[in-house]
Every structure is written in C-alpha cells, then in structure tokens.
Amino acid sequence: MTDDILEGSALKHHVTSSMGQFFFDQAERFSDRICQIDTRLNKKETYSDVKQRSVRAALALQNRGVISEDVVVLCTKLTLDNVVPIVASFFLGAKLANLDPSLSVRQTTHLLSLVSPKIIFVEEESLGLIEESLAFANLKAEIVVFGKSSKYSTFSEFVKPQENENKFKPTSVDIHDIAVIFFSSGTTGLPKAICHSHHSFLNVGYSFIQSGINCDVILSFTSFYWVSAMIILTTSFIVGGHRIFCGPMDAEKTFTIIDKYKVTMLFLAPILTYKLTNFDGRHSYDTSSLKHITTGGTPISATQLERISTVFNHSDILFVYGCTEAGIVSTFNPITEQVLMRTKLGSCGKAAPGMTIKIVDVSTNQTLGANQKGEVCVKSCTTMKGYYKAASTAAFDSDGFLKTGDIGYYDSDGCLYVIERLKEMFKYLSWHVVPSSIEAVLLEHPGIKEAVVFGTPKSEEEGEVPTACVILKEKGCVREEEIEEFVEKRVSDYERLRGGVIFVDELQKTPSGKLMRKEIRNNILRETTKL
C-alpha cells in the first residue's frame, strides 16, 4: 500500500462470459442442489427447476421480439417466481431493471421514463401502480402479471413447456454491454439509471465471494430494486448455495429460519438489527450455523455492533461499505482480518478485492493521506459502465476514479471509516430520502411560495425524518396538518413529513439564488436545541 492509496487484493477470477452464460452454466453445474426456498409457502426449488422455467420464459420473451437492445422491468416482492424473468432476460442478453412495489407513482413514472421498457413483469397488487405510471410517462409496454389477470398476459403462460426448450442456448453478447440497470437515489436531483455490464457485475459477485463471506445459505429481505439483492443472487449461483426469503423482517421469524434452515449468512440493513437484539426470545434458538452477519448502507454505532456480537456470539459481524455504482468498496475479510474486525468496530474494513480507494480534498481534489478527511473515490473493474442514455463524465475524476459523494478517511492500518455524506440526501430507516423530490411536491401546493426539506435526527434506529421549512404566499393561509396531509397523499410512506412543517419568513440562499439546505437545517436544529 502506498501512503495515499488503498489497494485491495487482486481479483482471482477472470470474467469471460456474459451474465446469461454464467447463470446457464452454473445452473447446469449445480442442477440437483436447492437454489431457493420460500418459507411462507414451505416450497423449495432446485437449480435445474429454475433453469428450466427461465429457459421457457426466455423463449416466450423471444417470441415477443425481445432482443439484447430491449429493457425488461420487474416490480415485485421476493418470490420463487421473480428470479425467472431475471435469469431469462440475462439468457437473451436483454437489459434488466427492477422497481420496488413501495415506490410512489411519481417516482415510478420517472424511473420508467429513464429506461422505456419493452415489457414489465408486475405483481398483481402493484398493477395499478404500473398502469398509472406508464400513463403519466406516456409509455407503452407489454404488462405481464404475477398472478391472475383477464386483461394482461400472466406469468404462468411464460413458463409453459416450449418446443425445443432442451436445445436452448443463451444469446451471445459482448460482456462489456449493459446487463443490469439500477436506479440512483437522486442525491443532487432526479434519480439516474446506473448501468452495470456483464463484466462489471460478475466481478462484483466474485469480489464478494473472495472477501471470505460464506454464501452457502443466505437469508435476506431486500427486493431486487436494491443492488444487494442482485449481488446475493449472483453469489449464490457462484457457490451453488441457496437464497431464503420470508416476507417482511420479523425477529422471531428470523431466529426460527436461522435455526431451521441452518443459515450461514444474514444480510440486513442496520435498522433491522435492532429488532434482533431487542428480541427477548432469542435464547431459545440455535444460531451456531450463522457464520456472517453482513450489514451496511447506513451508519451503525459501535455500541449496536457490540450488541449484535453478543447476541450472535458464533458469528462474524461485517459492516460493509459499498455503492450501487461500484459494488462492494470495502469490508473486513473474516478469515484473515479477525483482529482488526474486533478492534475497529467503527470501520467498514479494508479495500475489497479488485478495489482501489483514495481520499481527496473536496476543495482542491488533492489526494490525502492517512487520518485526513475527504471524499472517498474508487476505481475497480466492478465500477459501473455509466448512466443509461445520459452523460456520466461528471461522476468520475480526471484519473478515472468514481466520486462517491461520501466523506471518510482511512487510518494507519488501511482501515476505512465513512463518517458523513457530501450529498444532501439522508436516510430514514434504510430508505434514501431525496429532499428535492419532496420539495417539488410542496411547491405544487397553492399556498406555498418556497420550501426546503432536510432530515432531522429521530433516533439511532430510525435515522433522520423528513422536515420541511416553508414560506407561505399569505401568512396563515394553510395549517401544518394540511400540508402534511397534502404531501402524504403524493409521496411514498418513508417520504412523509414526520419531522413536521416549520413556517418561516425567509430561507437562506446563495448569491445565485440556490437554497442553502445545510445552513437552514443547522439553524433550525440550533433553535430547537435552545427550546
């Protein structure tokens, strides 16, 4: 390691195949092994089963004219079925994007407009969301429903036996073409569509495995909207392990599943760890199979990490740092870095395999050394290809490093600490909250002249809650409760103004007229503290 660069170990695996060929070959290799388990239905499926259904779905998509230039979108919670169109899309070299059913119509409309899908697979409960969003986006796409529908094709039609299905081979594509699209959190504006190639995303999976994390039996709760779910799917196919899902996270249910299915790796957001450490009945369950608990995405205190270690005394607790644009940036290797892992609880580990990290001064872009705070910048073969049909040069510096927008530092042992975000967004629970999106809604209210939104601290578990400062067009023309109700009807649940509405006569701005969100927030917090 040089004085100003953190270098991860070299990636041992050389990616030469597309995502489609990879999933096809691995499904054949592990054909008789269990691939996935839905504990709600008490049903399991082998790799061979998943491959057969995915081949049939791929042929059905092919019959509808889907090619490598097309985008296939999913909007569904985790089920045994939703992996099938994902793998089928990879088989055809089509580009895949995922939405979350909890998103609002406003958000979904924008995301669909970014990718203009040819076909959308949607759960029955979210059909209205997709229909309304397509109408607002003025887009036409074929809709396929997981469940029953008299209006649209159903998923069951896609997995019927097909002629010559046994002769199917994945479409040959350039491994540097776009394979999967994720959506950014829109920290400085509206969300962007982040593109990973076949090459970059397979390297994300191999980097995760090389970090020493046991992926034989994985329990997670995130939908495929999140990059973590796609990483888990890929890593399970690398090792021939299986994924377990069970619906919304519940402490008793989680302990039961770990005990019954001998889970080896649990992935969950920091906020969810509190449910486990606060569960009084935890002593009744055997969790000795659980080798690794992986968490990340939001800060977590050293105290909570110690609590998790106490409850799961057989497990290594890994606080991982990553971003959608680059995959896993840093983590401790539980096999080789045991001492550091236990003595540096605030750290998110060392540079991941294949990753190069530098810290730069946010004003001068000068590369900094140990224990100097600046923006975290990364370079790796796991880094995104760019944004879908949009310029991405601003996301990189002149040396080709991705600018993460996170502020951090590394110590003399090369352990990385991420301490705050340069960007203006914040997190409530495990959700990114984008102030400008809520501000746009507020400005639709006829009584509001100006508005700014920021996060105010709620609790260690919840993070920050959305709070609004507004200037009314006419003093007293609207009450706080009316504004909160107006916003609630137009945003997702996590974007509600749980921090309240504060009426002011003026809002601080820069000379160019931009709202000074950070200064406004700090002033409000100072005034609140005085009360």
Automatic annotation (TrEMBL):
Family (UniProt): Belongs to the ATP-dependent AMP-binding enzyme family.
Keyword Ligase: yes
The protein, known as: Luciferin 4-monooxygenase
Organism listed in the record: Zophobas morio
A UniProt-annotated Pfam family: AMP-binding_C
MF annotations from Gene Ontology: CoA-ligase activity
Any one annotated GO CC term: peroxisome
All residue ranges annotated as the AMP-dependent synthetase/ligase domain in the record: 23-388
Lineage: Eukaryota, Metazoa, Ecdysozoa, Arthropoda, Hexapoda
AMP-binding enzyme C-terminal domain location: 438-514
Keywords for this protein: Ligase, Membrane, Peroxisome, Transmembrane, Transmembrane helix
InterPro entries according to UniProt: AMP-bd_C, AMP-bd_C_sf, AMP-binding_CS, AMP-dep_synth/lig_dom, ANL_N_sf
Regions annotated as coiled coil: none
TM region(s), chain numbering: 224-245
Localization of this protein: Peroxisome
